[in-house]
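QA checklist item 7 of 12: single-chain prediction sanity check.
[x] sequence parsed
[x] length recorded as 340
[x] structure emitted
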Amino acid sequence: MSEVQNQKPEKKPIIFSGIQPSGTLTLGNYIGALRNFSKLQDEYDCIYSIVDMHAITVRQNPAELRRRCMELAAIYIASGIDPKKSLIYCQSHVPGHAELSWILNCFTYMGELQRMTQYKDKAAKHADNINAGLFTYPVLMAADILLYQTNLVPVGVDQKQHLELCRDIAQRFNGVYGDVFTIPEGYIPKVGAKVMSLQEPTRKMSKSDPEDTYVALLDDPDTIRRKIKRAVTDSDGEIRYDPENKPGVSNLLSIMSALGAGTLEELQNELAGQGYGTLKARTTDCVIATLEPLQAEFKRLIADKAYLQGVLDENARTANYLANKTLRKVQKKVGFASRG
């Protein structure tokens, strides 16, 4: 056998990302994350979790949460993720997430969790339900990542603090027990634009904001048209990209550019001298044309619950296998009794 034939295929880096099945996925989620996920699956081993355990830090309607889990699985696949190449599974279907989270809780300091900006924000929003899960949320997130020996984690600005804590916990554990966990790095997509709120264009588009501030992935064309028509611009009437002075106009140009309508410079030149009505109409056409095929595929998938359940079950078995490889090693290191 030749030396080339004898070589093992090079192991791909592992990417982990999770989305909560709560709220409504937006155009911002699509441009910033979802559409990039499918582009990664040939180059990386991708694990895309539906993080339903994270979702219950805020009270959920049980039937609605179950429905949203299935819908998110359909959206993942409709956006181009191939469940034969990537893992799509529910976090709650892999007990290792909770088991590792408890162990990591014992290697995380109260002061570290008290400094988490998201905890402070969520505690302010849900003052009637400041539960322990909300406080230890970042430890479960660390368990999600470390369980699969993840190399890269796609992160936005609001998650960088959590990833840093994850790295600190992993390094602390490794410092005591040796080389157990891979230390993950943040992954910043090469292409991507920050999509801002339609009503407050200085703020990022968020699914937790009022409905008129975002375009939802499953909004019908009439709803998209209405929302973009009402988008905040300004009073001087000039179409140019200037995020500081013209955030609303710049947001619409940025959305079109991110969806492939042209560079910001090309769009600015093409629309020069035209009114904001034209700008909004062009943006609307771009968004509808992008979302139509995704929505059609989503409708086909969500009608086939048996197929989606099969994907979740099969992928959860693989995820459990991978998770247990790490978990057994961790349990042995900390001194838990051997299992038969």
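[x] summary fact logged: Residues 29 and 206 are 8 Å apart (CA to CA).
[ ] second reviewer sign-off
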